[in-house]
Amino acid sequence: MVGRETTKLLGPVWRRLRLLISRAVVTRTDSAKGLQILQLDLLRDETREVEHMEPYGFTARPLQGAEAVAAAVGGARGHLVALVATDRRYRKRNLAKGEVALYTDEGDELVFNRGRIVRLNAGSAVEVTAPLVTITASTSITLDTPDVFATGNIKANGQVSDGTGSMQGMRDTYNGHDHDENDSGGPTEAPNQEMS
């Protein structure tokens, strides 16, 4: 008799606990509001629009078919929020233990690999916009590209080299060079306009 009454009393509590956390499938998104809205398919015939609680400084708009975990705040099924949304179709796989990645369904990725190596892979372009950009490399920087373009001046405090000599060496050669004069046979004077 005690078992039945206990079950009867605890039945509603157990039902609320079972409905406290739910898995869901994302069917639509709206990222225009302060908190992104996800439309979720939850239990059979249960579709809800819920706020997506994201960590400060990070946001992502999930694709239709992504999966989410929703929680009933205060145990009230009418006040669901999405805690996390993920998409197993595009998740970056085979990371080493401790590695971290940001990724998209298009294959762009920023991966923090072991050995303190950071890799950025963009399928089309990488754009950096800032009044001042500083790159500090204690060993070297390699630009593996057919062309390098600058829309303004290029200035160097040190030597600029083509791999066989320096720009200063080229200046010295040009500024001190002369030619054999065709008519007189003697050398010409050094150029009157030096390379600076």
TrEMBL record:
Segments of this protein annotated with the region Disordered: 154-196
Biased composition (Polar residues): 154-167
Xref: InterPro entries: GpV/Gp45, Phage_Mu_Gp45, Phage_Mu_Gp45_N, Phage_spike
Domain Phage spike trimer: 129-169
Pfam name, any one: Phage_spike
Domain Bacteriophage Mu Gp45 N-terminal: 23-89
Signal peptide range in chain numbering: none
Name of the protein: Phage baseplate assembly protein V
